[in-house]
Amino acid sequence: MKTITITYDDKIVRWFLWASVIFGLVGTLAGVFIALELAWWPANAARWISFGRLRPLHTNAAIFAFVGNMIFAGVYYSTQRLTKARMASDLLSKIHFWGWQLIIVGAAITLPLGLTQGKEYAELIWPIDIAVAVIWLVFGANFFWTLAKRREKHLYVALWFYIATIVTITVLYVVNNLAVPVSMVESYPIFGGVQDALVQWWYGHNAVAFFLTTPILGIMYYFMPKAANRPIFSYRLSIIHFWGLVFLYIWAGPHHLLNTALPAWAQTVGMVFSLMLWAPSWGGMINGLLTLRGAWDKLRSDPVLKFFAAGVTFYGMATFEGPLLAIRSVNGLAHYTDWIIGHVHAGTLGWNGFMAAGMFYWLVPKLYGTKLHSRAAANYHFWIGTVGILLYVVSMWVAGITQGLMWRAEQPGGGLEYPNFIETLIVLKPLYWTRLVGGSLYVIGLIMMTWNLVKTAMNGAPAETTVEVPADDLPKNANWKDLVFGKPALVSLVVVALMLAAGFVDAIPASVLIALSVAVAIGGYYLTAKGRSDDKPTWHRLLEGRAGLFTVFTVVAMLVGGVAEIVPTVIATPEATTIQNTPYTALELEGRDIYVREGCYTCHSQMIRTFTWESARYGAVSELQDSAFDHPFQWGSRRIGPDLARIGGKYSDLWHYRHMVDPRQISEGSIMPVYGFLKDARIDADGTAAKMRGMRSVGVPYTAAQIESSASDERAQAAVIASNLAGQGQAGVAADSEMVALIAYLQRVGKNHTAPGESGAAATATASAEGGAR
Amino acid sequence: MAETKRHDELQGEIVHEYDGIEEADNALPLWWLAIFYGAIVFGIGYYFFYEGYKVEPVGRAAYDQEMAAQAAAAPEVTAEQLVALGEDDVAVAAGRAVFAANCVACHDQEAQGKIGPNLTDAYWIHGGSAMDIHHTIEQGYSAKGMPAWGASLGADAVNQAVAYVLSIRGTNVEGKEAQGELYAPEGVTTEAQEPSPSGEPVVDAGADASATGEPTADESALAEPATDVEDSTVESAETPTSE
Known about the structure:
Strand content of chain B: 5-15%
CATH superfamily of the largest domain in chain B: Cytochrome c-like domain
Shape of chain B: elongated
CATH topology of the largest domain in chain A: Cytochrome C Oxidase, Chain A
CATH superfamily of the largest domain in chain A: Cytochrome c oxidase-like, subunit I domain
Number of domains of chain B: 2
CATH architecture of the largest domain in chain A: Up-down Bundle
CATH architecture of the largest domain in chain B: Orthogonal Bundle
Strand order of the largest sheet of chain A: 1-4
Shape of chain A: globular
Radius of gyration of chain B: 32 Å
Number of helices of chain A: 31
Radius of gyration of chain A: 28 Å
Number of strands of chain A: 4
CATH topology of the largest domain in chain B: Cytochrome Bc1 Complex, Chain D, domain 2
Oligomer: heterodimer
Largest sheet of chain A: 2 strands, antiparallel
CATH class of the largest domain in chain B: Mainly Alpha
Distance between the termini of chain B: 76 Å
Number of strands of chain B: 5
Strand order of the largest sheet of chain B: 1-2-3
């Protein structure tokens, strides 16, 4: 057999690996700091480091900087070996590396400055978004080019997961960040209200699925059998759980919007698909854990396997908890509480963090041609990290369930057991300190790891891996027609088509269609199984030989759920939901931008759910109309402070002023940062017209006249509020201050429209006109 | 890829091998399949139960039902009951606790007024009768910055708060300057046109209205009307509300 000699590019792996180690420290330290801010509010010492601005920095650093660089290190290392080919272009690899690090630096500068899009895990401003998309495509180009040059006919399961990651993240990221720029640093998303909510959580949930899960599963499939030196448990399980995840995951986004104003059908679909995800997720876990069969004894001494086994176990825990939390009633208790925070940290600290640590401990000795400097230190890291995660997760479970139960506690005669929101926050204090201890322990573990890895690298020298690979051409491809029109493809097509059709008809025909869909699935399964024989390769095996077709199938499977849920919502944007709405005034729009800039949504939701205890506490249940003109939507995902969906008109201007200057004067025990600086910051009323034009281009019906007179309208409304404040005893607040704009916005939230039977603005206006007449 | 067909004693036959990683092809565990199929069956059942056939209301529909039931069960309250509560020490004490927990941020510790008006003087913006006070606390006057407390506190706590306010009505704690119109307890409501202490005309006690009419229709919803007289107790208001 003729062979050729190739050298893998491991330099790029080393770069990404060290970047991940550094940003892992940065991201988790930011997490510890914002945990401190919640336990001890004075830590919000300056606007640049207030919770609302740093929380996005923490999440983006953890996801895109720490896990992102870890993924790239793992993908670059394993892809070259699984394809028996060096990365197609060293230049693209370098552009990818430096581009990604520049993006991270850009994020670290802009987020503390309050430059944000106001959408969770998609906060980065539009120029950085474009950079992310470009660099991601560079990565994708390099990866697929390498696949094209591969010297291994069939794609191993790890590569399937990498393919799914690359194509899905591209679609998610681009669609969710579609926005109309109004300046170099500001933009408004093209979607608003419920559409934005649905797109955001389609993205948000699947960022978890396709950035924090599928690439890590790919990494598991490569590094775990390598480290354990044991065979993968089951090839067929790989197939089933891969396609299961790719197809089902994308549907699950609406479980972030349960019991909200989102149409009920979308909520229900989101919930049931989340439940169906349980088994495919656990398929990954058991394929990982059962691969350790015959290697369990090694866990005692080998820190790498310890981390992998624990990481996969945390994955199993989080993917059981996920479907549980997606059940409508469980979600009613858990949503907006710390339970969700605990859930995501079981995933990021336990699954992502531990898989990263295992990979690093295995990889660094290989990359530097030496042994791990200290096994003992790595084992200590494991135990400190595990205790840290458990403290973190358990304290958040307790905090979440406690607060959730307190929110919903109603008195027998009507009314709330804890009408004062602050009561439900103060009880969490000890748990916030516990979480801080847990998080700190985890960071100590990471510091030990960093030291250990640096020492290891210093003990060795950068190593090159050179291998002999077969020089022969790969076997011929299977005919694409045999694959596209193969039984599994056709059966899947029919099953999905019947399922989708059921969404368009009444209950009885829908039941028939679903029954038919299930029948076709079962029949197709037996038909396919019957046609199988040992001497010819299966349909899927042939597909594994065709990377391009495999990618196309992945894209199709991934798109179905998103299209099915989002397109109806976008098309059915009912005139009825916007027709009675009035857009924000110029001043309110400026105030809203401040609300977004300060990250108020990281602590305050604007969504009163369909529960009696919610409307008792916050006011009338939120409707789609309320946020129809909100670009971006601000429904939020966590209530560290109370919901603000009906804050408009609830308190006086003076109340808001004093609350912003000193929250604890109004609400003793509050942990809100001080926003007194807003009274000294000025707004340029002449700049608002551009923002209104931006809003008009995304569908908010501002008239030309409104835009024309925006500056004078804005000053007039601001003058009224300033004089109100003066009249109420707070003289000297500048009318053009950000404080006044924010108050104007807050007094408007939840008053977008007048619902029938409500005594809203109209009634007040009449009364006030009468009063004036007398 | 080499089709090695090695047999591993734990994992069984090895079907593929990539870069030294062997791949076995074990059957799917039955319990896993049970979860997989079980979730699908449950999902279909759940969808048709709640969405397809709407056997039971869920979400907004369930909420509306529950609210209707609550409204039907809500007790009516009368002026006599409230006045009696105002003379009942237990109710007043309970009302004081409600007041301390929810009202002092705006009305201050002794109800002498801060952001909101002084409740111990003889002047009332929205009427000083037991039923007026009940209405003010329960429904609120959002344009004046008074939240509606009925839903969150519940009927009992609202009644207790009314009892407390009735018990301190007319005790004249020194504090915020009088606002609204004079109310003579147990008397007839004074005429709407009677001047307030600040010399400004006032409207009907119960009306949700601005006296000056200064804000325009749109603004009245978002800005508190500037009827309130100059707050003379700014200094005291700056001190912490609770010890």
